[in-house]
Amino acid sequence: MKRNILEWVVLAVSALALAGVVGLLALESFQERRPPDPVAEVHLDEARDGSLGWIVPVTITNNGDVASEQLVIEGTATVDGEEETSEIDVDFLPAGTSVEGEFSFSAEPESVIGVRFLGQRLP
Amino acid sequence: MDEARDYIRAMGGGLLIGLPLLFTQEVWQHAVLLPAWKILLLLGLAAIVVIGYNAINGFRADATIGEVVVDSVEAMGIGTIVAFVALLALGRIDGGSSVRDIVGHVALESIPIAFGASLSRAQLSGAGDDEGREEDRRGGQTKSESEAGRLGPFQRLLVAAGGALLFALNVAPTEEPVFIGVGASPVMLLGVMALSLVVTLALVFFAEFGGRRHVSQGILDRPIPETIAAYVISLLVAWTLLWSFGRVDGASVVAITGMVVSLGLVASLGAAVGRLLVASGGEREDG
Questions:
Q1: Which of A60, B16, B19, B65 is deepest in the core (most CB within 10 A)?
Q2: What is the ipTM of this complex?
Q3: In what helix (H) or strand (E) does residue B54 lie, and over which residues does it extend?
Q4: CA nearest B7 in A: which residue?
């Protein structure tokens, strides 16, 4: 069967794409999968005054190899001498991905914002 | 350019068959959550179906083994590329996705697209030409048509497995088979089994889509044994898919039976349609 350039290109691209997918999946199969490891980065420099309080953006990243479900992150800070907490719930955070969230306090905290990981469900 | 038209057909057919799963949230989650080896296994099953289907179609047209392999690689490759582009367009993957997520998404979504690509190259083109050549067909039959009726029982059951996989794949990732299966009483499940058998028997052997002829050579060529064999294969396909998507983990035997039977209805219909579609060409002649 005679093949023209188009057919060669399609065959080559197909074979490459397939080999890539299969190869990466095979590699992944043999790799040990680290449990989900959520990390939160607080962006104090981007904090702003909102109508209902002081808003602090946070980036939550899953550094593990397994997705995290129903992840809860808590931020703690001292505002006007009182301890305040703020909570962010993340429904689904795949491995290696980030999600943006925001903590909210009644006013600008005078202390450092402490971040705690309250819990998650394993898939 | 015939080849370009072929590839456009393949991409179009692939997208048509693949779209429901591209828009299914559960598939996106499975793409991320399933262990890589399970996705590989599903790809392997899909490859068996694609190669088997191309072989059955190809051998009618005197294709060599090499051509069958090339067609299969192209179908799976087109599936991969179309899946990648569609997932990008739908925002399911982007620059922020990890390589593992991208590969998982592309691999899972490529399966129905590869089926669609194979189908459209062999089937849609054939069907389209049939319409145009209605007159010709009465006079002299083409080779592909005359040989289609000669599909052996094993080939028909392979086609049944392919049809079952194609149909059930659209439903298996969702929660619904679990709800239906767990909620059904044993009597209802027996009813679903009876319904599956009767409907597929009627579809394949009595509805005369394309006027099926009755060839009685071996046991598996007879209507009832073939229907039962195809149903058993459909249940196996249903179980395999449910297992792949982690639905049977931790479930009781009763619950698993319910899920398999409820998904089996979908799978068995797919198996019936598959047998009709692939075997109809030649049988129309004798009907």
A1: A60
A2: 0.76
A3: helix B36-60
A4: A10
User: For A96, left (φ over 0), alpha (ψ -120 to 50), or beta?
Assistant: left
Kindly state whether residue B37 falls inside one of the protein's structural domains: yes
Last residue of a domain, one of B97, B132, B167: B132
Give the residues of chain B that fall short of pLDDT 70.
1, 59-61, 123-150, 208-217, 279-287
pLDDT digits (tens, 9 = 90+) for B182-239: 888 999 999 999 999 999 999 888 876 655 555 556 777 788 888 999 999 999 999 9
> Is residue A76's pLDDT more than 80?
yes
Interchain proximity B74–A14, CB inside 8 Å: yes
Retrieve residue A8's tokens. 């060669």
Closest CA to A78 of A48, A54, A53, A111: A111
Tell me if residue A54 falls in helix, strand or coil: strand
Chain B touched by A19 (CB under 8 Å) = no
Cα torsion angle, A101, A105, A111, A115, sign: negative
- B positions 11-70 inside 8 Å of A (CB): 29, 32-33, 35-37, 39-40, 43, 64, 67, 70
CATH of A38-121, one of 2.60.40.10, 3.20.20.450, 2.40.10.10, 1.10.10.10: 2.60.40.10
Query: Do B6 and B55 reside in the same domain of the chain?
Result: yes
Structural domain containing residue B116: 1-132
Structural domain contains residue B137: no
Please tell me the distance from the alpha carbon of residue A7 to that of residue B5, in angstroms, as a whole number: 11
B143 part of a folded domain: no
Q: Specify the 3-state DSSP secondary structure of B170.
A: helix
Please state, as a whole number, how many other Cβ atoms lie within 10 Å of the Cβ of residue A123. 15
